[in-house]
């Protein structure tokens, strides 16, 4: 069209009008953030609800921008996906998480499992498996101590690409966790076909436990726990915030737990102080 300049760029593209100034600013800044070392990983512990021992953690990215301050991943991950920057960011996250876990393994925590989130966009990249293999090799990190968290909505896309990526991950020896489980609409038949090792019960179900009308949600929680067991999968409850919830989950034999009651996501050194040094006998 004649509105477009030489490079095809137009200020009158409909999507441009909708983009707020903030989003455009974020996008520019996001491109510089990796080079400027503005990202940092926080780690949220997962505990074995039987022993109360830490079994591993989930790596969660934080963006500490020099003037905007902390930007939430809920805000910039979708933008990173839209712009394709997620590939670079995702690679940085994986390398950083594996390097950190190597250090913890060398310090004696040699069963510690590191979980890393991966979004739909990353799963659609044909280079994803090669990238993971390379990072595991570079960081000398064992595949079996890495877990990839993928939301139920992603695993649900029964697109062949995603399915074959999940199987390739499995062959590498990496574990697969289905995040936010219970919020999508997976059929049991489909779930049984997925090469997944872990179900993470979505926080929305945990939130209802202990509340007045919690019957249906606790039924869902119970159903997911027994579903996981019958499929020989591990089960993790996320977003545990109070004692009632943790009691309930222990009583119903949920294996692992994660949430603010146990710990908020922490920088590596704080997680060490809180969960590791004190454990050293
Ligand atoms: P998620 O994977 O479902 O992660 C759980 C979110 O809940 C995290 O928010 C965590 O800090 C928060 N959370 C944990 N326990 C509690 C609790 O007891 N109460 C409450 N209210 N919240 C709790 P966060 O760190 O802001 O991350 C938001 C989302 O951003 C994540 O949701 C994930 O989808 C995405 N994300 C974070 N890091 C990465 C990453 O490195 N790569 C990708 N692709 N996505 C990421
Ligand atoms: Ca997650
Ligand atoms: Ca989740
Ligand atoms: Ca989520």
TrEMBL record:
<protein>
    <submittedName>
        <fullName>Sensory box/GGDEF family protein</fullName>
    </submittedName>
</protein>
<feature type="domain" description="EAL">
    <location>
        <begin position="23"/>
        <end position="279"/>
    </location>
</feature>
